Amino acid sequence: MSDPILEVRDLVKHFPVRMGVVFKRTVGHVRAVDGVSFDLARAETLGVVGESGCGKSTLAQVLMRLEPATAGAVRFEGQEVLDLKGAALRKLRRDIQIVLQDPYTSLNPRMTVGDIVGEPFEIHAEVAPKGDRRKRVQDLLDVVGLNPEHINRYPHQFSGGQRQRIGIARALALRPKVIICDEPVSALDVSIQAQVMNLLGELQQEFGLSYVFIAHDLSVVRHLSDRVAVMYLGKIVEIGTEAELYEHPTHPYTQALLSAVPVPDPDLRGQRQIIRLEGDVPSPVDPPSGCRFRTRCWKAQEVCATEEPELITRVGGHPSACHFAEERSVVP
Amino acid sequence: MTDPSTAASGAAVSASEFVTGAEHVQTKPGKPRSLASDAWYDLRRRPRFIISAALILLVLLMAAWPSLFTSVDPNYADLDRSRLGPSAQAWFGYDNQGADIFARTIYGARASIVVGISATVFTVLLGGTLGLLAGYHGGWVDAVMSRVADIFFGLPFVLGAIVILSSFRATGGSSATEITLLVILSISVLSWPACMRITRAAAITAKQQDYVKAARALGASTSRIILRHLLPNILAPVLVYATIALGGFIGAEATLSFLGIGLHAPVVSWGVMIADSRDFLRIAPHTLLFPAAFLTATVLAFVMLGDAVREALDPKTR
Questions:
Q1: DSSP B94
Q2: Which positions ≥6 away from A259 have C-beta within 8 Å?
Q3: Among A304, A328, A332, A331, which residue's Cα sits nearest to residue A251?
Q4: Fewest Cβ atoms nearer than 10 Å: which of A43, A163, B253, B290?
Q5: B154-195 pLDDT tens trace
Q6: Does B16 map to a domain?
């Protein structure tokens, strides 16, 4: 993989847990993201999956500089992102944009669609001359498959899928190179999910975009991603190409996740093995020692409690953070 | 079921079932519109707005140029005609001192309107700004401001106003303007915490919305987020509070006059007139009726105006 557009190295985000009314003291940290590293190539889609609370959205916030990182490094085209300030940070905003999860709260109800999609041009006035902005907004609406005539309408006059298109148009306005999609289809109906994902795919080809695509739905991620990372309790447990991860998963957690994906073929029902995980996700305030997954893993042994497995290639062709990684096909 | 792939590439997804009134009568096709211009377009067509605006305009005219409406001196009193009822000479009758109630009602508009509007404006500006900052920044800024607001909130209104008015009146002179100013200030100083709490709560709700996150991700400055995203979304509760408070403040001015620390003769105000009429309610109800009717109509007009503006600023109710 040559020349990644986004490099993330050992990214850490801890939220302090504070107690007390006036004098707050820190009693612990929520380790939302705890040492995440990955590369994103140009025009590539990296899917990030994991269950609720595993740190996916926090990862998006930190990458967008909406939350300060605790430690680690993020480089965009070789340039360090986390210490940027002022004008340099504003310039970065033109290159990295975000599409948020909930299309109902991500659009200001008191702004017209023209104002919402045109806001990036107002903030970055150097991108488009004033007289040109309306035309650009209409072009953007056209690109995401909305009627450009609807520029004077308000968000409540659109359906959920159309609102998400407005959110995508806003993110596209500054012609970014990377778009972070924070569960962009989770709030939509399945039929609308497909429309929005196809739109994202078309936009990627048209503008050469790179996506970090966060979702909790494995089939959604598979549809769009070139590579997939699986997160558990703030760490990436397995990362690989779409085929490697789905056909030859090596981490027990990935295998368990994949075995839970519904299969649409009734003939195959009952033939495949479903791996049922016991217990709940441990608290990210006090994660288990060694391997974080060991409390729910059927392969766990003593070494798992003492030694943290590194994310390295053990078997197969892709990295997996398990001492006992082995290939096991769970999707028939 | 349509095939999602073709549906996605097909350009315009129709939203034609939602058509606003403003869209039917587009002035210039293709002219960009904003919330403010849409709201103004909508307001001009609302009877409630037209009626209330006309009423307010009338009261403002009375306050600015009372001599347009009457040529009688409001302070000329003749005890011979004490408490006479309405007649052709005096449409609203005479009060206990024998002064013309119509003239006094017209002249009383100025003090009442000035106190009511100014106190509301100061209260909303002070409470609104502090509440917005406290709600947006949170943390220690919020903690300090909220505790200061609690202190003011704990002061009983009448007691606080008596302390402020009596202590400041002793030092300065007591011209009508100074007393009016003092009344306005004491009302605002004692009322801003309520407005601050309303704005603070609304700002906290609004700042957690995703559209604020999206604006920050676009690189929007703090002032832009507050002015463009927070302010329009917290205006509704503040407007409701302000229009109700306005009536309350005109009443508060009357309370202070009644206690002898607010406005007093020769300044005429509706509050002073209502306070004066309390002893003769059963034998001369018209002395209360006319100033009270004007006060009620004015407050109602402001409440209606606030309501119409609030609805016009909310695209969902259009």
A1: B
A2: A272, A273, A274, A275, A330, A331
A3: A328
A4: A43
A5: 989 889 998 888 888 765 556 778 888 989 999 999 999 999
A6: no
In this structure, what DSSP letter does residue A131 have? G
CB A81 within 8 A of CB B179: no
Q: What does pLDDT average to over chain A?
A: 88
If one counts every other C-beta atom within 10 angstroms of the C-beta of residue A228, the result is: 28
Mean pLDDT of A60-84: 91
Contact flag B4-A90 (C-beta cutoff 8 Å):
no
B135 assigned to some structural domain: yes
Mutation site, A89, A152, A175, interface B, largest B CB count within 10 A:
A152
Average pLDDT over residues A3-14: 91
CATH of the domain at B61: 1.10.3720.10
**Which of A105-114, A208-217, B6-15, B228-237 shows the lowest per-residue confidence on average (mean pLDDT)?**
B6-15
Q: CA-to-CA distance for B183 and A142, rounded, in angstroms?
A: 58
**Contact of A77 with A3, CB cutoff 8 Å:** no
Determine whether the interchain pair B214/A156 forms a contact, defined as Cβ–Cβ distance below 8 Å: no
pLDDT in tens, A267-293: 777 777 778 888 888 888 888 888 999
In a domain, B287, yes or no: yes
The pLDDT value recorded for residue A268 is: 73
The verdict on B64 touching A (C-beta cutoff 8 Å) is: no
Res A272: pLDDT: 72
> According to the 3-state scheme, what is the secondary structure of B244-256?
HHHHHHHHHHHHH
Q: Residue B125: which domain range?
A: 35-66+113-317
**pLDDT of B6 above 80:** no
pLDDT of residue A168: 93
Q: B316 and A109: CB-CB below 8 Å?
A: yes
Mean pLDDT across A291-311: 89
Phi, psi of A324 (to 5 degrees): -115, 40
B231 CB within 8 Å of a chain A CB: no
Task: Report the 10 Å Cβ neighbour count for A32.
Answer: 23
| Residue A64 DSSP one-character state | T
Is residue B193 in some structural domain?
Answer: yes
Specify the pairing of strand A25-40 against strand A45-49: unpaired
C-beta atoms of A145 and B13 within 8 A: yes
What's the structural domain count of chain B? 1
Alpha helix stretches (DSSP H) within A248-291: 252-259
Give chain A's domains with CATH numbers: 6-225 (3.40.50.300), 250-332 (no CATH)
* CB contact (8 A) between residue B228 and residue A106: no
Which of A90, A142, A157 lies closest to B219 in CB terms?
A90
pTM (predicted TM-score): 0.82
| pLDDT value of residue B172 | 52
Question: Is residue B4's pLDDT more than 80?
Answer: no
